[in-house]
Amino acid sequence: MKNKYYNEWELDQAINLMEKNPYEAVKKLENYLKKYRKDYNAFAFYINSLVNIKEIDKAKKVLASIENKVVNDSKFINNNRRYKSFKKKILYNKLQLLMFEEKYQEFYDLYNENISMSEELDIGHIMFWCKIKLDKIKKNPRDNYNYLYRQLIEYNTDDLIDHINNHTAFAYDNDINSEYNMFTADFPLLKILNEIKKYIPSDRYLFPGFIDDRYTFKYDGCGKINSKNADYFRVICIHNSDKIITMYPVVNCEEFDYVDLNYMLEKQDMKIKRKSRIDRFNDRYKK
Predict the structure, then answer these.
(1) Please, are residues 224 and 184 in contact by the beta-carbon 8 Å criterion?
(2) pLDDT tens-digit profile, the chain (287 residues)
């Protein structure tokens, strides 16, 4: 018998689309919610998808609307499992919106007011960042922490380069059949880092999480994913900054708002093919 309140298969199809085409995912979720208006948990995914594409005002309106509807739906509230799941997802939405707007004190307060659920979200590193911004954390040497925490405490470009180099073919002895995602051995990392400074920060990012702006770039043959060629790579920056946390090759990004860096490949090919004046003279007058 068809469930009139929700359809897990159809919802999963829309959610999974967020990684390939976030704008189409929003449309799919909107069509889904027209049919299943009482799938309140699906509204939480919809809010997240709106924040992801930076439709912040609309996300806030949907959040306020769905909370008002749930308050008056005693049947749903009495369904402990689904209601608990809904509250946790809505808390995630609220915390995400606060971090997008860099409202650190409000984030800190809301997180602690709902400490049990907040800890279930597994976003301790976000709270760590919030404490840094609020000057609520003891200053310790950055080397005492793992990579991400070190970069949040005090950003260091050399640390970034080391981090990325650990995910290149060099790190796996040029094993291109490795199951790991990696950049190719000849990926010009330093040149790429210098070039993408022209495009970061900008408004061409997605915001899927809490403090990470996600940019997409095209650079043919930049890496491997499970031994398959990747022609795109993703750059993750601290929100509203040019501080890159990580980069990695990706596929299936045709529908994203990406920056095409293949002009760098063309310049490289031209440099390789360009002959010296002596070579051109010899070519012209050789017998």
Answers:
(1) yes
(2) 467 778 999 999 999 999 889 999 999 999 999 999 999 999 999 999 999 999 999 999 999 999 999 999 999 999 999 999 999 999 999 999 999 999 999 999 999 999 999 999 999 999 999 999 999 988 778 888 999 999 999 999 999 999 999 877 654 444 444 556 899 989 999 999 999 999 999 999 999 999 999 999 999 999 998 888 999 999 999 999 999 999 999 999 999 999 999 999 976 655 544 445 455 445 433 44
| Cα-based distances in Å from 266 to 38, 62, 273 | 53, 46, 10
Query: What residue ranges define each of the domains in the chain, with the CATH number in brackets?
Result: 8-101 (1.25.40), 156-273 (no CATH)
Q: C-alpha distances in angstroms, 40 versus 34, 77, 95?
A: 12, 11, 18
Among residues 163, 132, 154, 234, the alpha carbon closest in space to that of 124 is found at: 132
* pTM: predicted TM-score of the whole model, two decimal places: 0.88
